[in-house]
Amino acid sequence: MDAEIIAVGSELLTPHRSDTNSLYLTSKLNSLGIEVRFKTIVGDDAERLGTVFRATFERSKLIILMGGLGPTEDDINRQAVANVLGLTLHEVPEVIERIAARYARTGRTMPANNARQALVPEGADWLPNKKGTAPGIWIERDGRIIIMLPGPPHELEAMFDEQCMPRLKDRVSGSQIRTRVLKVAGLPESEVDERIAPIYKPYSNPSTTILSTGGAIEVHLSAHGATQQEADALLDELTEKIEPALGDHIFSTSGETLEEIVGMYLVMKQKTLATAESCTGGLLSERITRVPGSSEYYLGGAVCYSNELKTRFAGVSPKLLETYGAVSKPVAQALAEGIRRKVQASIGIGITGIAGPGGGTDEKPVGMVFIAVADERGTEVREFRFPGDRERIRLLSSQFALEMLRRRIRN
Amino acid sequence: MDAEIIAVGSELLTPHRSDTNSLYLTSKLNSLGIEVRFKTIVGDDAERLGTVFRATFERSKLIILMGGLGPTEDDINRQAVANVLGLTLHEVPEVIERIAARYARTGRTMPANNARQALVPEGADWLPNKKGTAPGIWIERDGRIIIMLPGPPHELEAMFDEQCMPRLKDRVSGSQIRTRVLKVAGLPESEVDERIAPIYKPYSNPSTTILSTGGAIEVHLSAHGATQQEADALLDELTEKIEPALGDHIFSTSGETLEEIVGMYLVMKQKTLATAESCTGGLLSERITRVPGSSEYYLGGAVCYSNELKTRFAGVSPKLLETYGAVSKPVAQALAEGIRRKVQASIGIGITGIAGPGGGTDEKPVGMVFIAVADERGTEVREFRFPGDRERIRLLSSQFALEMLRRRIRN
């Protein structure tokens, strides 16, 4: 079965927005052996959407539409699809009740226009939306499956995983696509490629793609096979060759983020953690606490933007700050050791640096960052010169702090 | 004149790659008053590309194809377009000479398959490529303009700017597109629409789109005019009608983020800020410090995940924690007042809540969040019930904290 995806929304035709939902859907569809043949992006215009949908309906067996299910007049998908298929829309009372209940739970009254979201084409199924108000729609007609999903990513992803994947699994047969992602920390993308290109180049199945994403490098392998087992065996073969070339820079092969891996180690070793951040401004603690259950090992920390707070919250002596400056190796060390002591955590992390765009000097340029990890065995401090803008320098700082922590607690 | 863009390349149909060239082209086209109506992504398959191109040729006056001009068998654009238009391809000796010269400059010999790149449909112009080997192609036929550009961004951008923009400028009759974005805080999307739909509905120019993005609601207006001034006047007219309906919920009309607006107010009023976060885990401080120069007003804060740290860093009394529980109105107030006092800031913010997925009870469900803002005039505390998952609850908490702060310092 081949699929095509239609993203609906005038904002996706501006210079400022691009469709990212289709990447998520493609990954899920591929895992079922379904390939995406076309993607189309069209504005909130019923006539143009009708034209596009009519063409897709003629050539594809599985059509997924995203967006255009909101409560406003802009939200034209329900009507446009029903028109092309010659179906009428009817209001589903249960959907209205669910939306009203959702509003009631947060102490609000449902605005009248939300009733539009309860319109479903005759003969279609509606798909409950656990994360929002708009239900999805599932239509089967003339041997085609048409799925309409809400646009917000967290709504779309939850609905597709829970409601659509099981149904699609029942429908597909034959060739399977399996993927594996090796996540790598502590190496630049070019070095990852240099190390593994000679290994993956001879293989067309699995295919290999290297991606740089949010500070981590990801090696994506994708294999076709007659069965899942066959595809998995191909992945195993190539993975076993690649792993030695990247060694312990690989921190995950099953999708975990670096903060999740670090959290698993901390739980396993029964260690607690505290942080003292300057240039990252809370990004490190924010990443650590993204992980559900992080309160088990993360006690908290300080964002010490001012020098006074470096002293008050992390016990850095004013003399040290005066002698070496806030962005220095001794201050990073003092931040890590001080926050560990004050919070009575097993491990303390300190970060200080210059994220820019201002504040750099010849001696201490933008991108200079010191990171320290302190535990009962002592303190490791490293100096970095990160490339890029403020956002990237902060991201790389948090990434290398997590990577230093991972190596520290693993040993 | 309306445009549509076709991106050709099988890699753009994988989970790992998305088309970004079209954002660049859209920005350039908009500056000429040309709107993009459709974008289609199709793999390296001559038959499928033919189907897509045939449909676009019927409905659009300007069609831009990207990619598929390389020297390999995969590069099918030249042939597929020529087939649909009933044109034959001929080899242009000058193009071959240029490609051979390019290779010679770097001491290499042109591979034989590069001659494919010199194939141009009869009657078409070829566009020199300063950054690579594949020339572009410009076809005019039946009142349509068809432009074929190479896929690599630096080749495409240079070629489009130098070769296509001047030609297109001559073709368009001066119509200009101008856009404006009103950013709204503190209202759900459906209420924003309910308030302003009666106002924007009668207008087709400007067109209006409402978007929900990262906790903020954005109202996008886009106007066409014979001149920039005319388009701006249309935007002014509609903006002046919409503004009273949303009142002071509009925090920006020139692109600033909520954290930037709050930063501008803090600088203007010469106030300093400190934060004490529990469930947001540092997200609020991270957002505040995304803004370059935030060290001027943000002193820092505490991420007090554990109760001990709520006491140590923000001076919350253990008795208060015991009596009301960590997630409570009095504790939010004590966090805000305590961090303000300890850090000696003009304003203190305290956040405590249950982000989930675990930790909720009937009395204190997941999504319950208390936010407090304390300054010299006293402390405001609000209770929220946020919908969604952990990530969304944390995001909305940080958003409403910034919005409470904005309202507080504005007055």
Structural class of chain A: alpha/beta
Mean pLDDT of chain A: 93
- Report the biggest beta sheet of chain A as strand number plus sense, adding barrel if it closes: 6 strands, mixed
CATH class term of the largest domain in chain A: Alpha Beta
Low-confidence stretches of chain A: none
Instruction: Say what the CATH topology of the largest domain in chain A is.
Output: Molybdenum Cofactor Biosythetic Enzyme, Chain A
Treating each run of at least 4 consecutive H or I residues as one helix, how many helices of chain A?
Answer: 13
Principal-axis shape of chain A equals globular
| Oligomeric organization of the protein chains | homodimer
Order of helices and strands of chain A: EHEHEHEHEEEEHEHEEHEHEHEHHHEEEH
Q: Number of folding domains of chain A?
A: 3
Give the CA-CA distance, first to last residue of chain A.
Answer: 48 Å
Helicity of chain A, in percent?
40-55%
Give me the side-by-side strand order of the main sheet of chain A: 2-1-3-8-7-6
Please tally the β strands of chain A and state the result.
Answer: 17
Please tell me how large the radius of gyration of chain A is: 26 Å
Largest interface: A-B, 95 and 90 residues
CATH architecture type of the largest domain in chain A: 3-Layer(aba) Sandwich
Q: If you had to describe this structure to a student in words, what would you say it looks like?
A:
- Two copies of one chain form a homodimer.
- With 411 residues, chain A is of the alpha/beta class.
- The first copy, chain A, has three domains: 2-171, Molybdenum Cofactor Biosythetic Enzyme, Chain A; 176-252, Alpha-Beta Plaits, CATH 3.30.70; 258-410, CinA-like (Maf protein).
- The first copy, chain A, is built from 13 helices and 17 strands.
- A six-stranded mixed beta sheet of chain A has the order 2-1-3-8-7-6, sandwiched between helices. In chain A, strands 14-13-15-16-17 form a five-stranded mixed beta sheet, with helices on both faces. A four-stranded antiparallel beta sheet of chain A has the order 10-11-9-12.
- Chain A is globular and about 80 Å long.
- Chains A and B meet through helix 1, strand 2, helix 2, helix 9 and strand 14 of A and helix 1, strand 2, helix 2, helix 6 and strand 10 of B.
